[in-house]
């Protein structure tokens, strides 16, 4: 399973 | 944060400022695709929903606020303030041909089946193709104002620099997001034809004319 992404990019 | 991403964000910022300057100084939105600007506005709205719930850094928050407000302002300028100069006859790309496939793909291919994550994924897919109405409009009119081509060059460069950023993060931070990378490559490839024209024409001082 894909780990949850912390979207830190704009 | 790395230099590629910072310069990329600054190129993105420059593109948006260039566009606003062009509109404000020439008091005209001639040659601009309102549809692309609507799509970019939608990209920011669906991507920055976490603006208040997920604090990353002051830089991140300030840039998100600027991108959101400037894209909404641009749509406002095109469709209300300078509506008289909006060339709707050449801005005929069907937005639904982009919105529906991106929405469907975001539902099927995403990192997590949650509303926020699906909206983020939708914004990534949509950003990759949001420039198409603008490029389509230029191909129909056969030309673009020089400042509009500078806008497009900065806009295309920003995602190209992000690809370098993703390479860097892959090797040094072991961080890799296949969805953003694939969409970013598609987005940058769409500009290649324009990049060629920009470098061979605009940088030679000529106007951007597409071969008829």
Give the helices and strands, then pairings.
The complex is a heterodimer of chains A (10) and B (212).
Chain A: no helix or strand
Chain B: H1 3-26, H2 34-47, H3 58-81, H4 96-108, H5 115-129, H6 132-141, E1 143-144, H7 146-172, H8 178-200, E2 208-209
Antiparallel strand pairs in B: 1-2
Explain briefly what this protein structure is.
The complex is a heterodimer of chains A (10) and B (212). Chain A is mostly loops and 10 residues long.
Strand content of chain A: under 5%
Gyration radius of chain A (Cα, Å) is 8 Å
Largest β-sheet summary of chain A: none
Percent helix among the residues of chain B?
over 70%
Annotation field: number of helices of chain B: 8
**Annotation, overall tally of beta strands of chain B:** 2
Largest interface: A-B, 8 and 18 residues
The number of helical runs of chain A is 0
What is the tally of beta strands of chain A?
0
For the record, the count of structural domains of chain B works out to 1
Distance from first to last alpha carbon of chain B: 43 Å
Order of helical and strand elements of chain B: HHHHHHEHHE
Structural class of chain B: mainly alpha
Q: How is the quaternary structure best described?
A: heterodimer
Task: Sum up the overall morphology of chain B in one term.
Answer: globular
């Amino acid at each position: 399973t894909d780990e949850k992404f912390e979207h830190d990019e704009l | 944060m790395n230099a590629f991403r910072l310069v990329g964000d600054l190129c993105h910022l420059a593109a948006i400022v260039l566009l606003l300057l062009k509109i404000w100084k020439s008091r005209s939105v001639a040659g601009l695709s309102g549809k692309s600007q609507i799509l970019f506005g939608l990209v920011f709205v669906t991507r920055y929903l976490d603006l208040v719930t997920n604090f990353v850094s002051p830089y991140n928050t300030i840039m998100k606020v600027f991108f959101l407000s400037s894209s909404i302002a641009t749509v406002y300028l095109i469709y209300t303030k300078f509506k008289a100069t909006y060339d709707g006859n050449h801005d005929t790309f069907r937005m639904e041909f982009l919105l529906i496939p991106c929405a469907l793909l975001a539902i099927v291919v995403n990192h997590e089946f949650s509303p926020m994550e699906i909206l983020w994924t939708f914004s990534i897919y949509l950003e990759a193709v949001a420039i198409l109405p603008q490029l389509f409009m230029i191909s129909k009119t056969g030309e673009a104002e020089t400042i509009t081509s500078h806008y497009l060059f900065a806009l295309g460069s920003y995602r190209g620099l992000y690809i370098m950023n993703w390479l860097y993060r892959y090797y040094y931070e072991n961080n890799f997001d296949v969805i953003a990378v694939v969409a970013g490559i598609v987005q940058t490839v769409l500009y290649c034809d324009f990049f060629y024209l920009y470098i061979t024409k605009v940088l030679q001082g000529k106007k951007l004319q597409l071969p008829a």
